[in-house]
Amino acid sequence: MRSGGRFIVLYERSIRYPITGNLVGEVLPTSMRIPAVSDIFPQHNQRHLLLVVAIFAGLLWTVGGMARWGVSFVLLLVVPAWWLQHLLPLQTPSRMVRWMVGATVGPSLVVLLYIWAAATQLRVPAELLVWVLWGASALMLWRMWQQCTDTLHPRVSWWGSVAIVLVASSVAWTRIMQVATLIFPPWVDAVHHALLIRVAFEQGRAPWDLTPYLPVTRLTFHSGYHSIMAFLMHMSGMTVTDIPSMLLYGGQILNVLAILSVAGMAWVWWRNWAAFATAMLVAGLISIMPAFYLSWSRYTLLIGMVLLPVALVALEALWRDTRGRDWLWYIMPIIALSVTHMAVFGMVLAWALVCMIVYGLPRRHTWYAAGVALLVTLPWWLFVLAQTRGGAGASAMHVVGNATQNAFSDGLFWARNNRWLVPVFVCAAAWGVRWRVTRMASLVLWVIVVALLANPWLLQLPYISFFTNETVTTAMYVPLALGIAWLAGWMAQRLRGQAWVVALVIIGLTLANVESIQHVVRDDTILVTHADRDALTWINATLPRDAVIATNSTGWMWRVDRGSDGGWWALPLTGRMVTTPPVLYTYGDDAWVAQVSATTHETSTMDGSAAQVVAFVQNHPEVTHIYASERGVMKPSVLQGQAAVQALYTSGDVTIYAVVR
Questions:
Q1: Residue 607: which residues within 8 A CB-CB, separation 6 or more?
Q2: Residue 54: left if φ>0, alpha if ψ -120 to 50, beta else—which one?
Q3: Where does a domain end: 466, 486, 518?
């Protein structure tokens, strides 16, 4: 017997209750199994349900916009997995594992196609792939109509059902309310995400080369999210002008999926309704993350956090599950995550180390899986390694970080309800270790390893530039939710006939947190107003394609400036050049980066006088227009009546000027 196996036997010897972390693939007691719908409903009722779903999807499709995008997204998650299940069945008896891992098949294939297209300078035939996916969807519906057996109906207590439905509906409602008053996605990241999606959409490959918009030809920014969004744009018939809506509302859908992903992992680990509901409650309503990702527009991190729990489950299964070729399924979320977010992928590698400590050395099929995953993503890794710079420096590609960028943020760590979530997690972890629960011990060990990776100075090692304490802290809701979920499940099983007490606590905490979690967007991160949106529409329809627009800027971080109003969106949405480009310009040539930084520094440090604005445009002959608003240093109230500029358009506090030369 391997050392890992002995560890499990010794560690779990004194366990008395089933809420102790069944291993992936273990057969549950009959009372805890989930029956198929065919065991509950007659076949004709299943067909009626399938028909209703198909008609509802068709109606949503006719609505267009984000409704059509939502249908496309569901098809991408479901159809490739359904066909792969029929061609190469995933044999694990856990339906939740099949759902979670299966949902990553379609996105993984899209990501792989786009990185290989970028590496070979080819174009993904997205339109053809869309028709293939539509044909596969129609054939899938026909096969499902004939079979009608592959759905399920959870069997939980009445109180458990009420708690789960209330938490899930509250999570969905709060995500709707969080964006109810927003026009565009907030803050900095949304601007460069919009540009990357546009490039991937137009080029038909991963956005490694940003020309003609920016002279950045070797962009190593993780591109999985942008490739998936570009494909969905093709599938749903969206255009570039729809990108802000897709970022905003699609991001909220991903936010819900990030919460369901954690809850799904809690079910796989703890097999208990109370654990499932509590994981949703903690991640979706009590913890400020991932809800606050909206205020930062952290969409690549968000989709990475959707994939993280799936990848953790899959990686553990590679150590524990030896059924046939199931490992081909388990590499799917790991492949998608490796190209989607580097830091979150680092957390998965930390989990691999934990699995090695707990379960022993990897089996042969685990090495097969690692080899195949590396082979199919090889273009990405070779591309990243070719651009990596050793040591520390100002470039985004330096490996070594610094104390400013990587420092631990005490305020972020203890934000809002973390003040009591962290102590509760510590108590749950201690109690789980006391009860010798393997997965609780593994969870604690994982947190320690990840913390050391973010703070290698504790081991007298330098910081890793991309693996920051900020990223780790914003991902902390995953272990918090899993640990507290175990404690809730343990209590529900201890109470047995009085499990309604746990349900009432969950319901009470849900109602107490619904209101506060609706307000997560900081006012100072909202850059775009209705006037900005109208002005951008006018720019797109009116200004010449070679226009260069002087836009307002202000200081941001790391000696990089950001836009201060909606003019910053002119490049990704209209294709017109601006004096303050998206912050990804820092991936360009050093000389050009220095030139852009000097220009943005000029606009961000102006005193707001008309003389300085006129001097700026005279010193920059490439500038043809000015985007002025009362939220920046270039204000319409100051430029009004100046002979050097001519007003072309006004909406609200925004005025577009032509430079008179």
A1: 633
A2: alpha
A3: 518
